[in-house]
Give the backbone structure.
Amino acid sequence: MDNFNGISLPFRLIGLNSGDQLFALECKEIGTFGRKEDLTGTFEVIYKGSGIDCRFECDITIGILHYFYSELDTAYDILFSKNAKAVLSDYNNDKTNIVFEFDDKCRCKVFGTIKNRSDQYRSGIEFTMSAEQSEICDTLAALDKFLDELRKVKGDLDIF
C-alpha cells in the first residue's frame, strides 16, 4: 500500500453494495506529468454481480472527479424531491458513464457503462443497482478528502 500526502493508496472513492452487487471506484496511483507537473491518477473499477467478478482500469481524470463531486453534492443537497442526478463520465462519454439518479421517493439508482482501458475498451461492464443514503454520504466524504489532499499538494490553483 502506497501513500500520497495523507492518502493511503488504493483509495476507495465510491463503494456501493446492494446485497448481490458490489461496485467500487478506487484510485490506485497518483502522479504528475507535463511541464506544469499536472496531477494525474490511475483509477480502477471493481464490480461483482450477476456472475461477474472483475477489476480493471477505466478512463477518469481528477478534473472529471472534481466535477462529479460537485454535481453529486448538489444533487444530494436538493435531495430526492427534484429528480436530481449526477453523472461521472469521461470527456468522450463513451468509455465511462455512471449516473446517480435520485427520485422523489428517497431512492438513488446507480447505473452505467464502463469500458476496460487495459483491453483497449473492447470489453467492460454495464450495470444497474440501488444505493443507500449512507453510501452517498460516504462517497461524498471520500471524494472531499481525496480532492482536499490533492489541493494541499498543488495549492488551490489549477489542479482541476
The helical segments are 62-77, 133-154.
